[in-house]
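Run Endocuticle structural glycoprotein SgAbd-2 through structure prediction, thanks.
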Amino acid sequence: MALGLSAPANPADETAETLKYVNVVNPDGSYTFEYESSNGINYGENGIGAESATGKFSYTSPEGEPIQLTYTADENGYQPQGEHLPTPPPIPDYILRSLEYIETHPFPKVQLSTK
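Sure, done. The structure for Endocuticle structural glycoprotein SgAbd-2 is below.
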């Protein structure tokens, strides 16, 4: 016999109500979707079929931190932006200097014989 118990991370989630819901799909394939709940979850997206989409969402993390994210999804992939997202470490100075040197000292072009 197995017994599983769980509780919402945020007690407000248990009684959350939908405050706003918009879902519009147009004949040209464009769409708009919006959602807002009483526990502070907000989501919205606009797009054109499977071509591109832009959106944003926000909520409060289990630690009580406000999370806000915006994104674009298109031919260049999914591009999220938000203060909570990890960022890569800075490029080391010696790498930047190496790249600058390579740019200012290109390799000479060698013409191969076709004999």
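DSSP finds two helices and six strands in the chain.
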